[in-house]
Structure formats: structure tokens, C-alpha cells
Amino acid sequence: MVLLVVSSPKGGVGKTTLVANLAVALRRRGRPVTAIDFDSQNALRFLLAPGHDGELGVARCTAQGLPWSSAVVDGLDGVRVAPYGEATTAERLRMKDVLVEPTLAEALNSLARSPDEIVIADTTPGDGRLQERLEALADLKLIVLLADAGSMALVPTYRDGLMLRPMSEQPNTFGVLNQVDPRRRLSRDIAEFIAAHAAERFIGVVHYDESLAEAAARGEAVVAVASDSVGAMDIDAIAGRLDRLTSSGSR
Questions:
Q1: How far is CA 177 from CA 18, 51, 62, 173, 199, in A?
Q2: Which of 38, 55, 173, 187 is disulfide-compatible with 181, CB 3.0–4.6 A?
Q3: Which pTM was predicted?
Q4: pLDDT tens digits for 35-67?
């Protein structure tokens, strides 16, 4: 199993939409993929399994001692989805308390069907205990940032400025610059700065593309229904790099 943990320093950066489309893009490249939602907003299921309306998810499974496989549903293009699910406050808190690293590793491994399977974890924005435990187990980590002033203001301090440090420090951590709009000067300047000063740290750039939001609103993945759109091509390029980095010959 390959564990890919996707995080962001703040909400509203398009992380969950990116996770959903990366999952589909990797599946379309032939990789078995399971996407798991660790965010209590429970939004990933709306993007990857829009027809699913069940309440059971990994939070309630954890609280009740059920295997996470009990919550797995079939999603778009053959991607399997483990939603966060409906949960009480007590169940959400118990999930954070129960999932120490050995227990978390066992639960994640139970989802994988083959050594080549990619398990993509969509996490809560910011930092927290569960986030730290997931990242300690991760084979690869993606940090999603917007090409805006809010995200860039966090870069010097987030993870001790990791996104601007050499790849020799935490070489399994990459950034994704999301919603880059060349029509906006600040967005364009940020993209150019990243290209000049942190190109090796960033695995890719996703340009602003209304097709992404339109596909999500229809319960579809843009990489499947509008593969020639700029956003879809950007995401597929990132998926290609992830596929190469996580293939059995590269590990």
C-alpha cells in the first residue's frame, strides 16, 4: 500500500476537489485507489460517490470498533471511497483519541487490496494530532496552497518554512499551487516566484478552471468528463508524477 496524505494550512483552497480528481486520474492510469475522508465536513463522498447517502463512515466505525471496510463504497471510475460519515461530537473526539499510530496503520492497511494500491487521505485543514499521525505514516505528502496572499503569508512559517527549503529536507513532501489565474497579476507573480525559487518542492500547478467546479456540481470528475480542459490536464500531469513516484520500481 502507498499512503498519500493531502493537507492544507487553511480551508477553502480546493483540497477536496483536488483529492477527488487525483483519485480518478490515478485510477484511470490503472492504479487501484481508495480515497478516505478524515475531515468531519464529510465532503469527499459528494465528489466521488454522489449517489451514496448512507451515514456510516470511518468515524462511527472507529467509535464502534467496526472495520473501516464496512464504510467503503464504490465511487467514480472504480475509485473506492471511505467517507468520514455522520458522527456525533463524542464519536469525532473518540476517533482522534483512539487512532494512535499502530492502530491507525492497521486500519489503513486493512483497506488496501494490493501492494500497488494508493490510499489517498483527505485531511482537515490546519494541524492536529490525527494529522501528525497520518503524516508520520505517509509515503508521500501533498500540501495544497492557493496562489493568493492568504496562502503565501503562511508559507514562511507553515511547517517551519518547509515549502521553501531544499528537497533534501523531507523529500517525500510536495506542494501543489492551486487555482493559478494568469489573468490576475498577484496570482501570476506567485506562480513565477514558486517556479524560480521552489520549483523542485512543488509537484505541480493547477490553473483556475471553471470546468472543475462545474464538474463537481454535477457529481463528476473533470479529468473524466473534460479531459482536454486546462485544469484536468494539470491534475493529470500531477497524477502522472505521483504514479511514477509510487510505482513499485521507484520505492
A1: 11, 30, 33, 13, 11
A2: 187
A3: 0.95
A4: 999 999 999 999 999 989 889 999 999 999 999
